[in-house]
Design a protein that fits this description.
The chain is mainly beta and 499 residues long. It has one helix and 39 strands. The protein has a six-stranded mixed beta sheet, with no helix packed on it. Strands 11, 13, 14, 15 and 17 form a five-stranded antiparallel beta sheet that branches. Strands 20, 22, 23, 24 and 26 form a five-stranded antiparallel beta sheet that branches. β13 and β14 form a beta hairpin. The relative contact order is 0.16.
Length: 499
């Protein structure tokens, strides 16, 4: 063994001692030895972005931060929400009215216990959040705003979103009476460049205004959709793509007559989609779908009800032309029972995106919310800002029968966690009697975990009545991606001896 080899081994040994240097064992020449199995490890850093809640001076906003307890997470860490540099847009003209840098008084608590904060009027800005260590796995922040009067009045809620580079929003509108904004928030130290395309019933709406939108570092931009294209259309799909950097994107849809809410992005285009948790007393449900590829999609429409999958009379299918947006009025499709909409390509599987606009109430007491197509609960999903009254948890198993465990966290101001297990039969949706913390004070989080069986889809509805109007908002519960697959590694210095 020569001096150079000895020096390499000595150096590598020191490196391993200081930094935990490791490499995968190389397979033997015979092929008998293989790399060790992939393990699921808690993530160590999570970013979340919250849009500016409202431009209304009478808005009241509540924030709730929660991290579920995760086995294997480190003992240390921190989480913080900082105000973004907000260039606010006037609710009618879309003109910028100045920068805002006020942030809510919110300090995330220990995992397993919610932390709350609030803000009033138009002062709260968009927020840029980062959680590290024990706060990172499954971190969720809920933003809920009550607006008593005016355009978009009612209850508006959204889960703060992770930054990404591609977002689909079927269900936006530039029709008379609607004011829709795409809120873009940049968490990074360099500017992001974003394109926004709109697609209607005849295809792309031509516009150069939506190209090359710059979002400054740690800043947020609300983009009024009606400024991106001429004409007015009720059913549109917005596609947000990021040329450089990354952003969080969420749509705020405000209506003169039926209130307003946040529209979260649809899950990635797929041949089969689920929109869970249509309220049983919904008076109007509208499906909006878009086919982003070069093939038309013929969608079979079914409702997963408490008794099984049924086909809505008169709305058995929906034809969606390639590159175009299609819509279908489903009326009071749930007819007094819990339900989830399942759409599936017939014949050749064609990827689509979709969302539901849901209306409750009648006449001047109507209020709306949205349910975008979403992914399954997966290993675990969490939603915060629940109360002892006004919270409905919907669980749907459109395929195989499944069992899930639902945990109510401790309350933000007191109370003991509680857990229940539910079996959801194949093809059904249930509004379950979710657990509530014993001795609850304040609000709490609900965490849903898959136990066995097929995939489960879930959503949570918050409702509150004010001046005779039942305000409500719906958030879906996709997998929180609190863990990441990591190949198991061993220290193997023999790689340094190989030529």
């Amino acid at each position: 063994m020569n001096r150079t080899t000895l020096s390499l081994i000595a150096g590598a040994t020191a490196l391993a001692a200081v930094t935990g240097f490791a490499s995968l064992n190389a397979p033997a020449a015979s092929g008998d030895n293989t790399a060790k199995a992939v393990a699921q490890q808690p993530v160590e850093r999570t970013s979340l972005l919250c849009p500016q809640p409202s431009t209304s001076e009478i808005a009241e906003t509540a924030y709730t931060s929660f991290t579920p307890v995760t086995q294997g997470a480190v003992d240390s860490g921190k989480a913080e929400l900082q105000a973004a540099t907000q260039e606010s847009a006037d609710s009618t003209s879309g003109k910028k009215t100045g920068k805002k840098t006020v942030k809510p008084a919110l300090k995330p608590a220990e995992p397993g216990k919610p932390a709350t904060g609030d803000g009033s009027g138009s002062e709260p800005s968009a927020l840029v959040g980062t959680a590290e260590g024990k706060f990172a796995p499954g971190w969720t922040v809920q933003e809920t705003t009550a607006v008593a009067a005016g355009t978009g009045r009612g209850l508006l809620g959204t889960n703060c979103t992770a930054p990404d580079t591609d977002f689909w929003f079927p269900g936006v509108s530039t029709a008379t009476g609607r004011t829709d904004y795409v809120h873009l928030t940049n968490p990074d130290d360099s500017a992001a460049v974003v394109d926004i395309e709109l697609y209607g019933k005849d295809g792309t709406l031509k516009s150069a205004v939506g190209e090359g939108i710059t979002v400054q570092p740690h800043a947020s931009e609300p983009i009024l959709l009606s400024t991106l294209a001429s004409g007015q259309q009720s059913d549109l799909t917005a596609h947000v793509t990021v040329r450089s950097g990354r952003v969080g994107a969420t749509v705020q849809a405000l209506d003169d007559k039926i209130g307003g809410d946040w529209l979260a992005a649809s899950t990635d285009p797929a041949g089969s989609l689920v929109m869970p948790g249509i309220p049983k007393d919904a008076t109007a449900v509208r499906l909006v779908a878009f086919a982003p590829g070069d093939q038309d999609a013929d969608l079979k429409i079914r409702l997963a009800s408490p008794s099984g999958l049924i086909t809505p009379a008169g709305n058995e299918t929906l034809h969606v032309k390639a590159g175009m947006t299609a819509a279908a009025d489903l009326g009071d499709v749930t007819r007094g029972e819990a339900g989830s909409l399942v759409v599936t390509s017939t014949g050749t599987s064609v990827p689509v995106v979709a969302a539901l606009q849901v209306v409750r109430g009648k006449g001047g007491k109507q209020e709306m919310a949205f349910i975008p197509a979403t992914g399954p609960v997966g290993a675990r999903a969490t939603v915060a800002d629940n109360s002892s009254k006004g919270t409905t948890l919907a669980l749907s198993a459109p395929g195989q029968t499944a069992q899930v465990k639902v945990t109510a966290s401790a309350g933000s101001e007191g109370g003991t966690a509680a857990t229940k297990t539910y079996t959801i039969k194949s093809g059904t949706t249930q509004d379950v009697d979710a657990p509530v913390p014993a001795g609850l004070k304040g609000t709490y989080a609900l965490t849903v975990e898959s136990v066995s069986g097929g995939p489960v889809y879930a959503s949570r509805t918050l409702a509150s009545a004010k001046e005779g109007v039942l305000g409500f908002t719906i958030q879906t519960l996709p997998d929180d991606r609190g863990t990441v697959a990591v190949p198991e590694a061993d220290q193997d210095l023999s790689v340094l001896l190989k030529k």
